Amino acid sequence: MEHHHDHHHEISSLNKAFIIGISLNLLFVFAEFGAGFWFNSLGLLSDAGHNLGDVASLVLAMLAFRLAKVHPTSKFTYGYKKSTVLVSLLNAIILLVAVGIIIGESIDKLLHPQPIEGEAVAWVAGIGVVINAFTAWLFLKDKDKDLNVKGAYLHMAADALVSIGVVFSGIIIMYTGWYIIDPIIGIVIAVVIVVSTWGLLRDSIRLSLDGVPIGTDIEKIEAEIARVSGVKNVHHLHIWALSTTETALTAHIRIEDTSQMEKIKQEIKNRLLNVGIQHATLEFETSYVVCEQLHCEND
Fold this sequence. Notes:
Blueprint lengths: L1 H38 L2 H26 L15 H29 L6 H22 L7 H30 L4 H28 L9 H9 L4 E11 L5 E9 L5 H14 L4 E8 L13
Parallel strand pairs: 2-3
Antiparallel strand pairs: 1-2
Helix pairs in contact: 1-2, 1-4, 2-3, 2-5, 2-6, 3-6, 4-5, 5-6
């Protein structure tokens, strides 16, 4: 009962983190877009564009987080857990589109530099540092439990760094009048986004294609099953992600003594649970029965 209560508390605290993060960042996006247009700063506009992408990411991540809790139906027997994987992929794509826009605008500003109000840029971006850092902190403790929460954390942490860059560009412009620093900061922002997003993109594509989740060693798991007393052979082993937090496995297990099957099954499932596999479907065969599936031994 205690575990259930803790799990429920974890869900409600994450839900609250999403709502606070979305509200704060949406308010800041409007303020930053307005300031960017008013003061003609590409650094502010590109940062606001990136922040808007992050608001969309947070909304999608919260939607996926809620969909993952929906119970299975006769049409969706796993529920909507896979939506968490699709959302993390969509988030990575949104960020990369933002990168393309920022780079295009920055190159245009490099070729046609325009005067900018440095002090105002520094102040607006300074507020952004506080909001982004606070939002990142909201997701800090849960970032290693879920790819979507990790995505939200990475986006907000990158934003905080980016806003620090914009603060410095504002200060440099204020004291030196080097307006060219603004599009340069825009390009630096784009590079930061690509670096912080690449891992998220790679992991979410891998999970979308039912690849073995990052950090799950299939050979180690096969060896772990084979070590169970009574197991003669493991084959036709498949591991994939049901969601960004749950992993599934199917395998054919060859045993000699069928009277020990239930005991062996329980031991295997316990071992799999210890390595982070929550859903295991096992098919048992005796040494005298040839696996019916073609090329089963090679799968």
